[in-house]
Amino acid sequence: MPLPLHRTTSSRSSSRANRPPSLTLSPSSIYNFDETDPFLSPTTPRTAPLSPRFLHPSSPRTPGSPYSQPGTPLSPFLRADGRPQTGFFDNLPIPPTAKRARGKTWIVAGVTACFLLLLAFSLHARTDDGGIEKPQGVVLAVHDELSKLKDWAGSLTGGRIGSATGGAADDEEGARTAVVGSAFSTTEDDFVDDDGESEIRIKPLPRPRLPNLEDHEERYLGFLPHSGYHNQRIALQNALLLGKLLNRTVLVPPIWIGWPTPTQYYADLRQSWLNIMLSTPSSFNISTLTPSSPLNDPASYPSTLTSFPCPTCVADNATHLALVSAANERKLAKWREKGYEVRPDGFPIVPGLGEKDCKSYSPECRFTYKDTFLAWDWLVDLEKVREEGVRLVDRWDMRERAVMDLLEVKEDDVYIIEDRQVYDFQFTDALNSTDPLISNNTLPTRWNRLVSLPRLSELPHRVLFVGSLFGTNRIWTSDPSQARAEATFARAMAFKTPWLLRPADAIVERLGGMRMRDGFVGVHARVGDGEFARHARGNMERAWGELVERLGVREEVREEMWAIASREREEREERERRRNDGHRVKRAQHAVLSASAGAVSAWASVDEYDAEPERQTSQAKRVKRSIVDDLLSHIPYLDSTQPALELRNLTCRRPLHTDSRFSAFNTPLYLATDSRTPELDPNLAPFFTSFPCTFVLSDFDTSDVARNDGVAVASVKQMSRLVNDLDGVGLGRLFLPFLEAVVAARGRITVGTEHSTFSAFASTDLHDAYWEAVR
């Protein structure tokens, strides 16, 4: 029985309204599937029209396809010349992008027929509900058998990855949801049955990990995180490494999400943590957290402040301190004059000003930002650090005296390595044994002073407190095991919560799954605000160039495509200028300009602009095609050289390139971005122009017949309803950037934005962690 080809429905987009219909080529896209059906059975009658698919009709810029020429008969039982169809292979035309000789086509057709014949008996078996397997099951089974043959033939890196490893799927994604591996798989028991509208309240508290109070020889290390999420992540990784080198148990703080606390030296960071705890006591669920608690007062701990003074440091510069004090007094006087209540952290509460009125980090808006706190264990897999012998204790209460109570130690048992300015200390073993604990750094680096690790390990104090541990190369040793430990700690930071992995699994599956050789690719594009908005054009041009180079596109072809993309971007900008008649900037530019003028993106609370990013690049892997790969490439429905054929419930924005020189640009691309209007943003235009199958998050979380067959990924909406039960703060807005990073990191190639700590994580450590699980 021939596979049916169906007429597509008209798109809601006005630009496609009058285009001729196109055909579907993907075996998983023959019908409109209801994603709640575990067997992906069709829910649309054959007589009903289907939505458009990825292979669109021709455009003025792209040569036409024989599948989309006006007047081409689309009946599943008629040939192109109008005569009745006579055989199965009449429905398997060779795609125009892979022109094959007729003789080779007949050879391949014969081989395929043999496979179908050999599989007929097994595929005729009845399903669990007594029904017969459907035609698309035959095609998928052939693909599975060919993939097995390919593995047997020795092509170890080919084939589909992660789609046959088991694991529960999203309720709207069916049995084919990609599972990355046991370390990241999810189960239905992790989720709740609800009405789909109400809040989902969770308590992201630590395990907790408690100290062994009977061991009086145990020593501990505590630090003070700051800034956005990824700076806190980097600080934690450095703390784990320092704890390993010093053989100290690391005190794990909570994750502070909300208004980013700036980089500060120890005394100021300690006060910032006390202020936020007193401002949002419900977040910490601590009965002793009151303004009058004796645990609020700092103790008189011995520290480096007196033993190793730093008269040139910012914190000890009398002139600078006087200026800061005067500025703070002026601010407080202004707030009091206006009658504003002042919070413990010195920010005012402005009557009548709401969250919707604040789109920036102005001091008046501080009180509208709702801070919340998460345990690291709730988000990542800290148990991995045990592989390096690092011990952990949870420090949910950040007050110094509270730590003393937790560990049952005295003031003399505590020592503080007290930094006095930003990037003050670097910890290293490069000093001689005769050098002091702390010495000035004479090298031209950003670190002000050096701390001797050998001398630090000799300190007898049971508790060692340090301030900021953020910064690349904050810990530097000649120990060859450091690199291995750093890699382990970085992999431990991969998101593990099922609230993120479940929608990510569903989105990745729709993009074709995690495929080493020809799967989708990801770009982490930070363009929404601040320095990222100001440098967006150059950053995106570099990201585009890196992606295309890693896809193996020759330099002359890259230049040709870039010329096409640049010309189209300029033409579009010129049309916008003419349409606006010189009186208004186009919407995309206005969005970017307004962002850089003060509005902040949803990523602002988790990302930082790093002037000295860590340079980590990986070489794109090139795999020689095997004989069976070539066989697969000759069968249109199973063409492994056309990743777009693996898309499910997705429609590409443009026709595929038919010029073989541009075939790499047909690779599906997931564009993770904080741009408010991605398709209108001129900085992102080169991606949409050169990669026909470019997708953004809105293509998955919003029902759209023209883009996703009207089937949204329901678990994205479910994730958006998460609320911290302790303080009532919604977590959905926070988790959306994390979800974007997870999806982009699962692309076989992931490219990030220069200077972004978020992008650096997504394109290196997060990417490596997820791909390690499937290799």
TrEMBL record:
Biased composition (Low complexity): 7-16
Location of the region described as Disordered in the Swiss-Prot/TrEMBL record: 1-79, 567-590
Basic and acidic residues bias: start-end ranges: 567-583
Designated name of the protein: BY PROTMAP: gi|472582886|gb|EMS20548.1| CigA protein [Rhodosporidium toruloides NP11] gi|647396785|emb|CDR39322.1| RHTO0S04e03906g1_1 [Rhodosporidium toruloides]
Bias-annotated ranges (Polar residues): 21-31, 59-72
Residue ranges of the TM segments: 106-125
Coiled coil: none
Gene name tied to this protein: FGENESH: predicted gene_9.197
Top-rank taxon, per record: Eukaryota
Keywords, ordered alphabetically: Membrane, Transmembrane, Transmembrane helix
UniProt cross-references to PANTHER family, sorted A to Z: O-FUCOSYLTRANSFERASE 30
UniProt source species: Rhodotorula toruloides
